[in-house]
Amino acid sequence: MTLASGAWPTFAADRPADDRPAAGGRQRGGSAVVWRAEMTKMAGQWRVRAAALACAVAPFAVLMAFNVQGATPSDTLFGQWIHTSGWAVPMVVLLWSGQWLLPALTAIVAGDIFSAEDHLGTWKTVLTRSRSRGQVFTGKLLAAASFAVVMVVIVGGASMLAGLAGGSRPLVGLTGQTVPAGHAAWLAALSWSTQLPPILAFTGLAVLLSVWTRNSVVGIGAPVLLGLVLQLVSMVDMPLALRHWLINTPFGAWIGLWTQPRFVGPVGQGAATSGLWLAVTVAAAWAVFRRRAIGAA
Amino acid sequence: MAARRPLAALAVAALAGLGATGCSSGGGITAAPIEASISHAFTNLYLLQQKDMGNPVPDPAGLHTRATCLKGTPADPQSGAGADWTCDVTFLVAGPATPVTAIYNLTVQTTGCYAADGDGPAPLNGSRTVTGPGYRQVHNPLWLIDGCFALR
Asked: 3-class SS at A233?
C-alpha cells in the first residue's frame, strides 16, 4: 500500500487551462487548489474510507448491542437511561469516544499528510510546482482540519440518528431533571459540537509531529498515545489552573449544558484552550516547514 | 491507579512541577458543591420515582432536601476526587417530625461528575427496579444518581 495513492495528476494536469500560472508568478487561491487535491487523495485512501464507514456504523452497532443484550452501561453518565430515552445514545457514544477516538481519528490523516511526502520522496515534485510553500502548507492543514470536522459530523450525526429510534421520550439530565425529548436532542447536538475545538487542537498537534518528525508512525501514533496518557493523567487531582490548559480537557466541557442551573464556563475555557494549542502547534509546524531544505539528503 | 503506570506517573510528576504555583490540588472538589448537586438531583429523581410508581407526586419545596457529604472519615482531607465520598440525603416526606435519610456512596471524578450508588434504605434506593402501576417493574431513578457540578 502507498500512503498517498497517486492522485497527483489531478494536482498538475487536471487543472483548467486558464488556471495555469503566468511565468514565474504564484497563483492566488493556490491553497484552495492544494486543499482540493488533498481532499481528492484522501477520498481514495482505504484508511479514510474505513474510518468514515466505521464512524457511521459504530453508533448503530452500540445501540443494537445494548438492545439485544439488554445490558445497561451504568458506569457511564447517561448509561442507565439508554433503554429509556434514545438521546442517551449520542451521549454514551460521546463519552466513550471523546477522549481517545477523536484524537485517533484526526491523527489518521493529520499525522500523515506531511510525512507521506517524505516517505514517498515527493516533496521536490510538490514544491517545484506553481504553489508556494505557504500555499502547500495551508492547503494541507485545511485538508486535515476538514477531515477532522467531517469525522465529528459523521460520528456525531450517526449517533444522533441512532438516538432518533427512541427519541420521543425525555432524558434525565445531570441534576436529575427531566429534559424533554426535543430539548435533549438539541443539547446532544450542542454537546457534540463542543468536540470540534479540541479535535482541531489535536489536528494541529498531529500536523506538527508529521512535519517535524517526517514520520507517519509518530504523527499518527503519538497523538493517540498522548490522548490515552492524558486520559489517565486527568484522573489525578491537580490545580484547576493546570487542568484547564490540558489539550484533552475541552472534550469534557459540555457537562454543564446538562445541569440545572446550567454552567457554560468550561465551553468558553475549552475553546480558549483549544485555540491556544492550535495556534502554537500550527505556528511551530510552519516554522519547521518553512526552514526545511528540500532536496537535501 | 494512574500512578502505577510509569509513563502516567512521569507525566503527573512533570505536571505537578509545572503547577507548583498552586498547591491546592483538590481541583475544586469539596463537599459544598457536591451537597448542592446531589440534594437537587435527589429531589428531582424522587419526584420522578413517585410518578413512575403511580404515587401522588409531592411538592418539591416541601421535601426540604438537604445533603451532608464526607470524604472518608472526618479526619481525612475533605477535598478531591475519589470513590470514598458518602452523602446522607435527608428529606421530609411526611412532615417535619419524620425525616428520612437516604445514604449514597459516591465516586467523584476529577471532572466534577459523580456516580452516587444508593445504599439504603432498601425500598427507596436499594434496588435497580421498583414496582409501578399494575405490579410492573420500572427503572428506579434513585438507585444510581449521575450528576455533575461546576469546578471552582
From this structure: helix
In-domain check, residue B63? yes
Query: What letter represents residue B8's amino acid?
Result: A
Taking a C-beta distance cutoff of 8 angstroms, is the pair B2, A231 a contact? Answer: no
B58 located within any domain: yes
B109 → chain A, closest CA residue? A235
B48 in any annotated domain: yes
Domain count, chain B: 1
User: Quick one: pLDDT band at residue A279, thresholds 50, 70, 90?
Assistant: very high
Q: Do B149 and A259 touch (CB under 8 A)?
A: yes
In a domain, B15, yes or no: no
Checking A152-156 for CB contacts under 8 A at 24+ apart, the result is A152/A102, A152/A192, A152/A195, A152/A196, A152/A199, A154/A52, A154/A55, A154/A56, A155/A55, A155/A56, A155/A58, A155/A59, A155/A93, A155/A97, A155/A101, A155/A105, A156/A90, A156/A94, A156/A189, A156/A192, A156/A193, A156/A195
Which DSSP string corresponds to chain B? -GGGSHHHHHHHHHHHHHGGG---TTTT-BHHHHHHHHHHHHHHHHHHHHHHTTPPPPPHHHH--EEEEEESSTTS--BS-EEEEEEEEEEESS-TTSEEEEEEEEEE-TTSEEEEEE-S-HHHHSSSEEE-GGG-EEE-TTTEEEEE----
Among candidates B42, B110, B147 on the partner chain, residue whose Cβ is nearest the Cβ of A237: B110
A5 reaches B (C-beta below 8 A): no
> What does the domain layout of chain A look like in residue ranges?
29-291
Q: Report the C-alpha gap between A139 and B139 in whole angstroms.
A: 52
Q: Quick: pLDDT tens for B72-100.
A: 999 999 999 999 999 999 999 877 788 99
Q: What is the pTM of this model?
A: 0.86
ipTM: 0.84
Q: Quote the CA–CA distance of B91 and A235 in Å, as a whole number.
A: 33
Domain span holding position B58: 28-148
User: Is residue A72 a contact partner of residue A80, using CB atoms and an 8 Å limit?
Assistant: yes
Residues A285/A288/A291/A293 CA torsion (nearest 10 deg): -110
- Chain A hits for B28, CB-CB cut-off 8 Å, are 240
C-alpha cell at B107: 465516586
pLDDT per residue over B48-65, tens digit each?
A: 999 999 999 999 999 999
CB-based contact B27 A243, cutoff 8 Å: yes
Q: Do B16 and A252 touch (CB under 8 A)?
A: no
